[in-house]
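Aggregate trends can hide what the representation actually does to any particular protein. For completeness, the protein is quoted in full, as a sequence line and a line of structure tokens.
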Amino acid sequence: MKYMFRIGIFILCLIPFLSHSYYGLRSTEATLTFSTVLEALASDINFLKLNEGDRHETLPIIEQQLDYLVGAFQSESFYKEFGYKGVLGENHHYKVTFKKIENTSDPQRKKIHYDFEGTVVFDKEAFGGKSYKRAIRKVPIKLPLEPDKIYDLSFSKKFNPCTDREYNSKEDFWYFWDPDLPQCRLKKDNINVVRTQGRLKRKKSTKLSYPEYDKLYSDNGNGETLDIALFFGYMDDVDVHNFENSKRVKRRKKDDAYKAYRTIIKELQSRGFKKIVEKELFRVYRDGNRDGKNSFAQGLNFLTQLEKTSTSKLKTPLNIRIQILLTDTSIESKDYTFHYYVKPAFENADIILYDGHSGLGGNLDLTSRDFQDIQFNKDKYQIYFFNGCSTYPYFKGQFFTKKGGTHNLEIITSGLPTYSTTSVPNTFAFLDYFLEGKTRSYQKILQNLTQSNFEEEEDLIYLMGVNGDEDNIWKP
């Protein structure tokens, strides 16, 4: 017989809610609430019986279970059941209310019952077609009861049939988790999989907002120059050794990111931009020197800078400078080139586009060693576009925090995995108006972005949206 005892209801806020506004052509933020249960080692949760003390030790336990919502919301079985895909918001930016603890048949383990409230992004059409009049939807929730055991529990012979066949490791399991795949032994399992219903309440979206063009097209810290920095990460793994091997160079040039890099340069030149700097097959060492070599040594990175003088719609001369870097952006890379260029861009560029792997938040993690000395200018107006797989859960809150809020920053993210085939159309759909010195709304920019993903194909709805525009005051 299981013994149940009250621990006193209390709320653990994993960092207070961030109340940033949001707009997406096909996406909307919503508040997700549900009740669930989690089983874990008693040694990890016994302290919850106390009415005082720091309970933040529970964070890893709760996060480990909630991470599985990322996989669940983009899984095929969820799409078939609910009709639309979605994405969980950032870790730590939600509220958890603990209700009770239960003993289990295993004296070393206990169950925690808790309520969840947090922000998610879903397709607007989930709330009632083109009119989007429905404000509330019920949504299926599927979570592992025992996150520390679930991978091994569902493993079968040489692979795990409850996740992606290619990314089949324990580390990636939560991101591709789908307990109702045909061969998954967890299918219809209501014991090891917590199946409950959540409640989605749509948040109000921004109706009309504009970038701060009066800042962007004037002296924004770079004189009369609109400074744009584009970063493209290799899609395939990069071997940072033996750069002299011509076969490695040829293989890099077959990478989709290299093709996008060259296509974008060619298109910019056709629009009147002139090359002012070009570096090919180079590498920057972290310490600036290696074996007596110059810091710019042989590598697999490509850099081009272009310029063009134009006139903005604000009747001011506008010199546009674009720097494009193709490099290895992986968190595991031993090549320092990406960080050498991206850090000053975050500090000084007016517009930044990152197109590459998100690394589940690792590739642009501001808490990592290579970003710890970065200094954001809270008085400089900037726009960031993170065009990678599911960037919404990772590259939003931490950048607003480092910047000092939303006053001088807007961030465009994607809610779902993106494809390299749309890198070029995404880039120009985002940049077109800025390159022409025009003053279009974020609603028009997001319309262009969404349409550039070939919207008629459902799996290319990336759920792109902008945060931070709620305090913009510029109007045409």
In short: Residues 4-202 form one domain. The chain has twelve helices and 16 strands. Residues 1-18, 49-57, 240-244, 289-294 have pLDDT under 50 and may be disordered. The two ends are 69 Å apart (CA to CA).
